[in-house]
């Protein structure tokens, strides 16, 4: 998907959905199937990639869809770690910066 770097009021629903689907939904699907395999194999480790843009300390304008999708990955990874940690599945998220 092409990142839509626009003010929120100029962002179309199609651009929003492309960012959410291309970033957050793809992470969900990848992790879902990886966890199933790891459960059958006694555990494993997942490393998701986000960005510093997804945190409150970084304020970059015109990145609402991308930033929201990456922030979703951060929370999704926390929940994944809590849900499957006792089964030997670790989940972490990296937040690289420029």
Descriptive key words:
98 residues; alpha+beta; two-stranded parallel sheet; 2 helices
What this model shows, in words?
Helix 1 packs parallel to helix 2. This protein has 2 helices and 2 strands. With about 100 residues, the chain is an alpha+beta fold. It is about 50% helix and about 10% strand. Helix 2 links the parallel strand 1 and strand 2. It has a two-stranded parallel ribbon with strand order 1-2.
Question: What is the chain-wise order of helices and strands?
Answer: HEHE
Q: For this entry, what is the oligomeric state of its chains? A: single chain
Helix content class? 40-55%
Q: Poorly predicted ranges (pLDDT <50, ≥5 residues)?
A: none
Radius of gyration: 15 Å
Strand order of the largest sheet: 1-2
Largest sheet: 2 strands, parallel
Strand content: 5-15%
Let me know the average pLDDT. Answer: 92
Give the overall silhouette: elongated
Number of E-type strands? 2
Class derived from helix and strand content: alpha+beta
Question: What is the structure about, briefly put?
Answer:
By secondary structure, the protein is α+β, with helices and mostly antiparallel strands. 50% of the residues lie in helices and 12% in strands.
Write the layout of secondary structure elements.
Blueprint: H1 13-40, E1 44-49, H2 64-84, E2 89-94
Helix pairs in contact: 1-2
């Amino acid at each position: 998907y092409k990142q839509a770097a626009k003010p929120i009021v100029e962002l179309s629903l199609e651009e929003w959905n492309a960012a959410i689907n291309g970033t957050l939904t793809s992470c969900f699907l990848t992790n879902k199937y990886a966890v199933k395999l790891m459960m059958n194999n006694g555990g494993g480790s997942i490393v998701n990639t986000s960005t510093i843009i997804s945190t409150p300390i970084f304020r970059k304008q015109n990145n609402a869809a991308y930033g929201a999708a990456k922030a979703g990955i951060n929370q999704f990874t926390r929940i994944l770690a809590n849900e499957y940690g006792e089964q030997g599945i670790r989940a972490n998220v990296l937040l690289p910066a420029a």
